[in-house]
TrEMBL record:
Known EC number: 2.4.1.-
Protein name: Glycosyltransferase
Protein origin, superkingdom: Eukaryota
The organism of origin for this protein: Colocasia esculenta (Wild taro)
Molecular-function GO term, any one: UDP-glucosyltransferase activity
Transmembrane region(s): none
Recorded family membership: Belongs to the UDP-glycosyltransferase family.
PANTHER family documented for this protein: GLYCOSYLTRANSFERASE, UDP-GLYCOSYLTRANSFERASE 92A1-LIKE
Leading EC class: transferase
CDD domains in the cross-refs: GT1_Gtf-like
Gene3D superfamilies: Glycogen Phosphorylase B (3.40.50.2000)
Keyword field: Glycosyltransferase, Transferase
Length: 502
């Protein structure tokens, strides 16, 4: 109609993380980053299941521009315990059921895209899916929408993970060590670096079927990859990822929550103590003297390992904060039993002020950022790795699952910022081993060298996310380049030309 202007909706970006804290948190942070860098230029919708959306909503202010949409989900239909919508308290066998159940969200995502298309007069500009939701690339194709896969893991970890699941090289040799097809010959893995699901697969089970399918769908259907890493920190890893995926890869990390909120309010999870209690306790310790011990949002260790770790920590005489959970094979949501720790351990630690034990959940970012924290005994989940390196804190690796084994290898061999304690949930960890490795990291020349290297990583990370008037860090430039390309290259075939043009 003459004189009446057509209202143009901003380009719409739909984010679809897999339902695990280590995926939901960085996807939400990515949404915040897009808005922060380009206020008002995009509509960003993060999609998940009702429980996850409820938790995420709690972590956002009421006036947040990020849209959250929940899709109907019934895990019970896939044999999941009632109410399970993420990996938080699932045991090993249920995680594969959650994977399978997540694919049932496909028609609901299609419905959402139809809604958006109808309301806004065009489909979203782009879908950012997850490495475990390759099927979202199929949905994107159906709607003619640009699709990118956001790997919440590092470049090295993602490259090895993809290559391992696609080729399963350990099934074709009896050797303890083997090369991985698609990766340089000098990168060799040991059988002890295999997570339980890939170690036990025969190539035809539910894990292999699901993961091979999702990885292939991503490689065939995505127009590019975003990686939660820093080009300068992970030079080798990023090269490998480009080689393995044959896709354009933008290193846009570290995508970390940095909104001034405590870790609790970001995730909807609560630590049993206030943040002030942690800070006061840390304030009483000397700089770089405290060991922080945590196995992420979903892992725990065995009962025997817990006793050995406790004894090793006590013998090391270093102050520590340890996030404790019921051991393997017990209900993770159940009460923590006193007999899981050495007799009198908790009282001794409290009375001597040497150890702070916290059940289930701790404000990790704040602990790592505190000047008293000197090392992190970690399962090497990628978010934990990024959070540690961002604070210049070296690591003691005890990888448990997924690509954590490859992260630990890269941190030790490539970056020299970690030393590995042991591998896997069945590891025969002893008090002596714990004592030795804690001493090595916290009281030796090698430990000092690791700390210097971790501090250098922290500087590189700061530079990568710098967003000054004159200078734009590499990760910020990569994100802008991705947004620019997504706006210009809706179809996969156009992408390579667009990348060359820019
Ligand atoms: N986390 C936390 N407190 C805890 C345990 C975990 O804040 O007690 C957060 C941690 O800061 C990180 C995420 O949960 O952002 C865990 O992600 P990661 O990739 O390290 O491991 P995952 O839980 O996926 O195995």
């Amino acid at each position: 109609m003459a004189g009446k202007q057509q209202l143009q909706h901003p380009p719409h970006i739909v984010l679809f993380p897999f339902m695990a804290q280590g995926h939901l948190i960085p996807f939400l942070s990515l949404a915040k980053l897009v808005h922060q860098r380009h206020p008002g230029r995009y509509t960003v919708t993060l999609v998940s299941t009702p429980l996850n959306i409820r938790n995420l909503r709690k972590s956002l202010p009421h006036d947040s521009p990020i849209l959250l949409r929940d899709l109907p989900f019934s895990g019970v239909d896939y044999g999941l315990p009632f109410g399970s919508e993420n990996t938080d308290s699932l045991d090993y066998h249920d995680i594969v059921k959650l994977f399978q159940a997540s694919e049932a969200l496909k028609p609901h995502l299609e419905h959402l895209l139809s809604d958006i298309t109808q309301r806004e007069g065009r489909p979203p500009q782009c879908i950012v899916g997850d490495m475990f939701t390759g099927w979202t690339a199929v949905v994107a194709k159906k709607f003619g929408v640009f699709h990118a896969t956001f790997s919440t893991c590092g470049g090295f970890g993602t490259a090895v993970y993809f290559a391992m699941w696609l080729h399963l090289p350990h099934l074709h040799t009896d050797d303890e060590e083997f090369a991985v097809p698609g990766l340089p010959e000098n990168i060799r893995l040991h059988r002890s670096q295999l997570a339980r699901n890939i170690r036990d697969t025969d190539g035809n089970d539910a894990w292999a079927a699901f993961l091979q399918k999702q990885i292939s769908l991503n490689l065939q259907g995505a127009s590019g990859m975003l990686c939660n890493s820093v080009e300068e920190v992970e030079t080798t890893g990023m090269k490998l990822l480009r080689k393995v995926t044959a896709l354009p890869v933008w290193a846009i990390g570290p995508i970390l929550p940095k909104d001034g909120k405590s870790s609790d309010s970001r995730t909807g999870k609560k630590a049993e103590m206030s943040l002030a209690t942690f800070v006061e306790w840390l304030d009483r310790q000397s700089p770089a003297s405290v060991l922080y011990v945590s196995f992420g949002s979903q892992n725990t260790i065995g009962a025997h390992q817990m006793l050995q770790l406790a004894a090793g920590l006590e013998a090391s005489e270093r102050p520590f904060i340890w996030v404790i959970r019921p051991p393997l094979r017990f209900d993770l949501n159940g009460d923590f039993r006193i007999e899981w720790l050495p007799e009198g351990f908790e009282d001794r630690m409290r009375e001597s002020g040497k150890g702070l034990l916290v059940r289930n959940w701790a404000p990790q970012l704040e602990i790592l950022a505190h000047v008293s924290t000197g090392a992190f005994l970690s399962h090497c989940g990628w978010n934990s790795v990024l959070e540690s390196l961002s604070s210049g804190v070296p690591l003691i690796g005890w990888p448990m699952a997924g690509e954590q084994f490859y992260n630990s290898k890269m941190l030790e061999e490539e970056l020299g910022v970690a030393v590995e304690l042991e591998r896997g949930p069945d590891a025969d960890v002893t008090e002596r081993m714990v004592g030795r490795v804690v001493k090595q990291v916290m009281r030796s020349e090698k430990g000092e060298d690791m700390r210097r290297r971790a501090a250098r990583c922290s500087e590189m990370i700061r530079a990568a996310v710098c967003d000054g008037e004159k200078q734009k860090g590499a990760s910020m430039a990569a994100l802008d380049s991705f947004l620019e390309i997504a706006s210009r290259a809706p179809a996969r075939g156009d992408l390579k030309t667009s990348v060359q043009e820019l």
